[in-house]
Specification:
Length: about 160
Amino acid sequence: MHVFGDSFKRFTLRKAFNITSPAFSLFFSKPLPSLLHLNLDECILLTDDVLVDISAACPYLEHFTATWCPQLRYLGVKCLVGRCLRLRKLNMTGTKKLTDEAFTEFIPKQEGEKVVESAFRVMKKLNLESCDYVGDELLLKIKRCYPHIKIYNYFKEEVEL
């Protein structure tokens, strides 16, 4: 089946327990500019390297979901937020090793400081439910800088100012 081209707008692959990181990387090795929605829930061998490849291959991605992917840490998510500047929804529920470092580059350390351009300026929803190492303090900083984003914390509570 030939899936590449202008009509390839959505792709969902859930519970792909045997697809390795190199296989994912091969799939995302060519540009996929028309891909807008990508769901890779419970793909347990998905790694940050694959998310880096996705961020390069899918620059116009608007919705990305990779819930309960135990090998993801920070680099891949950081690349998605920094490169996919149309990303409106990011769902990383249950990404147990995800850390604050995925997001710190995109929020100012002090008032008035310039930050790296990111998807945060257009993002509508950021779900970090059950992400053990993403702190509430960071989520509050993101909310202060980008009040239009609905942010969900570890307990799936909306972060409010």
